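Hi L.,

You mentioned the student needs an example of a multi-chain input paired with its predicted structure. This one should do, with 684 residues in total across all chains.
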Amino acid sequence: MLHVHDLFTPSVQHALDLVGIFVFAISGALLAVRKNFDVFGIAVLAEVTALGGGLFRDLIIGAVPPAAFTDLGYFLMPLIATVLVFFLHPEVERTQAAVNVFDAAGLGLFCVTGTTKAYDYGLGLTSSAALGLATAVGGGVLRDVLANEVPSLLRWDRDLYAVPAIVGATMVVLCIRFDVLNGFTSGAAVITAFALRLLAMRYHWRAPRAWNRRSSAREEDAQKATAQ
Amino acid sequence: MLHVHDLFTPSVQHALDLVGIFVFAISGALLAVRKNFDVFGIAVLAEVTALGGGLFRDLIIGAVPPAAFTDLGYFLMPLIATVLVFFLHPEVERTQAAVNVFDAAGLGLFCVTGTTKAYDYGLGLTSSAALGLATAVGGGVLRDVLANEVPSLLRWDRDLYAVPAIVGATMVVLCIRFDVLNGFTSGAAVITAFALRLLAMRYHWRAPRAWNRRSSAREEDAQKATAQ
Amino acid sequence: MLHVHDLFTPSVQHALDLVGIFVFAISGALLAVRKNFDVFGIAVLAEVTALGGGLFRDLIIGAVPPAAFTDLGYFLMPLIATVLVFFLHPEVERTQAAVNVFDAAGLGLFCVTGTTKAYDYGLGLTSSAALGLATAVGGGVLRDVLANEVPSLLRWDRDLYAVPAIVGATMVVLCIRFDVLNGFTSGAAVITAFALRLLAMRYHWRAPRAWNRRSSAREEDAQKATAQ
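Structure written out for the whole complex:
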């Protein structure tokens, strides 16, 4: 079995994972504060947001018990985020821009490590990329479902979130396909996804809604303009 | 191990699965358009609706990685449905009656194949039927949860959906119990569930709500009638 | 492997499990009636509430198929609760206090058995406690998500629910750590969690919301008082 996730040294890989988990946990904890949850609600939403995507991936590939339940650091990181947000949430919200940058880093990192781990466990290239995407966005979807909101991943009026992860995951499987996956190309995939997400936020890139919905909306606008 | 799902030839079975996945994906994609999701939201909801039930079944019986992640056709079918609905959704909605017929076919098919696969993996008869039901309705429940709606499966004001699947799954386990499960009886279970769902839609069959809730509503009606 | 769940005799353990499942099912069925679901919606919500936590635990530790699908009693108990609530829901709601007591008993029981089973399957002490907590509260969270409500576990305006389960699970892992886990200490953990939940309901103990949110609210109150 090709252990393609020996791309980074284990300790670097682990440190990167912890950073990704931490920033995702911050985003969960902040939503919990906005929804007026109590301190346990904040902790639950932080844990679910940070670990949900990886948990789903590990259940699918049969890696049980999932890393979230075997690595104590993975479990403690969201609790640290909870304490931080509990006491300092106005300060953390004021640094929302910084949080968004970290979240983009987590997105880039998780789509690459998720794809790599899925391939390691024997999934095909397309399935690995799909599961990498699910790893990166799954926690955020669970967060929004628990907070009883429409997942921001699905909403039209949010800046592109899936596309950067799809690009990152696709780069990884192309590298695997052409046998050039290594620490360098892998890092390039992380950085590409990260940069694309930053650009999407900066320039408010949106994905299109269904075709005729837009056309009919445009027609209505045209009719209104004529009527005036 | 009795491989009762060798009922149909593998290629027929696979073709039927793909049809079921496709029609469920259409229903997910249409809901996404109505909820004003972007194109990625449409694709996610199509995938989840089409593959969610089978994914749940495979996790429960320990068939990992689930078929949804090993069979490329299963993954691509919802993407085709997404493209179709993206460009043609007014036409697809106009054929809502046709979509409902296909959805009923998917329901019939999935409750039978779900029950059969669960039994193959060693579950008891009752559990197999329960998991067959979950396979058939699980995707739709996930679809509604992600769209932040009360699952239509649970709602009182929707035509019977669970009962046809329960009948189909029960027919399968009775056939297993009396050792008469074959391509013919299995097909009969699919067609029975399919026909029951069509009849439920045609005649707006509903399931009752809790006992006293209805009685008190009737009393109120009676009081109103007296008052007039 | 230390089978710490041989604490109680198997038949006592099983009877306690069935009681816990039954009372959780009642709480799910009652919410379904309040949400105006039909009889199948009531049954689905009863099953999900009663079995969801244990199902999640079993998927995480790799105990597939989960007990919910291998033990017929686990599956039938929620159906009995459904029939009961369907016909007698005003009477059951009138005994809401009694239901709450049973629900507290289920909480105490499930956090202890969940923690023990997780440890049996090789999880660490912290992870076992976390999974014991998830077993105890998971069904209720799923119930609220399916009913399209914010999980009451997360809400600030509900009496403490997580803390009693955390205390119970922590007592179990401390007993394991100091090698004094037996039927007696295990029962003490159940009773402690049970009693804490009863006290939380009796005295409306709440968990705090985020720090500054409370301060600013207090400031607003102070300003209002000054303005008058």
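You could point out the following to them. Chain C has a mean pLDDT of 86. Residues 10-227 of chain C form one domain.

Best wishes,
N.
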